[in-house]
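Entry 12.
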Amino acid sequence: MNLINADAIKKVLQDNGVKPSLQRIKIYEFLTTQKSHPTVDEIFVSLAPELMTLSKTTVYNTLNLFVEKKIITSILVEENEIRYDSDITNHGHFKCIKCKKVYDFSYDLSKHAIAELSDCAITEYHAYIKGICNKCL
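Predicted 3D structure (tokens):
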């Protein structure tokens, strides 16, 4: 689990043009410490007992702001299920169709030549794989 302190979170937010409110700090902290690729609902349910004034709308708007500022990424492995990841490095995601967990895996597209894209400038890519994880097999 990656432990990051409030001062480090404030700096990340400020360096990316985001005002570091208590709710934003707690949402970012949750994303950096929980590698489960949570949904808006999961974040809200986890933080609401601690932040009594937190609303789902605030969580949703904060996550959209973080994605816009490229502090986090959104993951769409299934329709109507957006998950969020604080790891903004290039990597892939594997979703187990049994336990529904999403796992990171290393994947570097730059090491693979794709002839059809040789004359394109790739600025972003996403790799999603579904199957049954080793714990569910």
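Annotation: Residues 92-131 form one domain. The chain has a mean pLDDT of 90.
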